[in-house]
Specification:
Elements lengths: L10 E3 L5 E3 L14 H19 L7 H12 L3 E2 H8 L3 H13 L3 E5 L7 E5 L1 H25 L1 H11 L4
Helix pairs in contact: 1-5, 2-5, 5-6
Amino acid sequence: MTTTAAPTSLRRRAGNGTTRRNEADEIGLDALVGHAGYAVRRFQIWIFQDFIKTLGEVDIRPTQYSVLTVIGANPGLSQMAVAKRLGIERARLVHLLDSLEGRKLVKRIKSKSDRRSHALHLTAQGETALAKFKRLAAEHERHVEEKIGKANRERLLQILAGFT
């Protein structure tokens, strides 16, 4: 029986200096290989890891970046509108906004017409920070393009546009 060596990225050095495959790489995936949901989830994991690594110096997570971007593009939106548009649970968004407010990136202004509602705005510091975050996010998008190719990235965005 002929076997081919595992790609370098899948091999590890054993303690004795020989090369061996990672045990996880030996596990068959059976029908998962053909499931779009599984492939999308694995890609999402890669995407989030690269995003977090690329934006690590500014300590911004993907959801925080999304919230800041939407607020920056739509000053004065209510918390409920942001939560609904991004598909974030209201309680989670409140916690996230507390964190962003603590970092002086976002401010909440009570609505004059509805005292229970808050209009969301970026602070001056938030606007400056978001510009930097966008530059780093563009670098992350270049990483995605390097991973899957420019045409595939554009096609992927076209396919996923129906879910935004």
